[in-house]
Amino acid sequence: MDRTARLRLAAILADAAINGDASTQATAPPADARETIREIVREHLLGHPEAAEQALITLNANRRDGRRAKGFAAFAEHRHAHVPHPMSPVSGNPEGDVTLIAFFDYQCGFCKRSLDPVMELLAGDARLRVVWKEFPVLGPVSRLAARAAMAADRQGRYLAFHVAVLGARGRISEWAVMAIAERVGLDVERLRRDMGDPEIAAYLDETQRLAGELGITGTPAFVIGDDLVRGAVGGARLKRLIAEARGGR
User: Which DSSP category does 89 fall into?
Assistant: First the structure.
């Protein structure tokens, strides 16, 4: 790290050391003492670049921990997420002892990658209940596909449609969604009618609000027991989280 980079880093760390975050402003030093302290911190960090780098690592870790703590607090506050909405499609054992709640978007590549691990769990775990939460965040086509999936649920073909759309390669379109619906045996005309039901639109809006309350901004995301996991997750980790939710910590 050259001197210019160290100087910039030292300035950042000095400000962090003096000012902290909003929660520590009440204990910050008086304004007339801050510059003196900043100079002391800068000189030390410039003279010890390895300490500067370690301090930056620690600062970033503390920030991540702060964001994680906020997410956990929001999750604890909105534990009604564990109680599935009556419209939420359910797969596996309806009376299962562990519930896995999956938030996803049909155009999300990481959601597509996560499909097989979840389906393998469904096939191999007779005590697992999976609740699917349509969370279309990638544009109008995602919202259209989500509406179609909820309409497919009314014909008892949700999972077949869900797997087929998530398994489709590349970007989807309205034409592709309807072609998949026909391929999995849905009554397409009825599907189109049901897609326009305001109740489905209201449900998707409610799911969007719930995701926001839980701090979920992207897909996929999974709620398992007391754990909220963001991003693609492999089968081994999902199994471990399910075991922990069953009390096998």
Answer: -
Q: What is the pLDDT of residues 158-210, one digit of tens each?
A: 999 999 999 998 789 999 999 999 999 999 999 999 999 999 999 999 999 99
pTM above 0.85, yes or no: no
Report the alpha-carbon distance of residue 112 to residue 133 in Å, rounded.
Answer: 15
Bridge-partner residues for 103, per DSSP?
133, 221
d(CA 35, CA 101): 51
CA pair distance 150, 67, nearest whole angstrom = 33
Nearest by Cα to 180 from 67, 79, 191? 191
| Residue 41 Cα distances to 11, 64, 163, 213, angstroms | 9, 23, 56, 39
Whether the Cβ atoms of residue 108 and residue 139 lie closer than 8 Å to each other = no
Burial status of residue 238 (CB atoms within 10 A of its CB: 0-12, 13-18, 19 or more): buried
Distance of CA 13 to the CA centre of its chain: 30
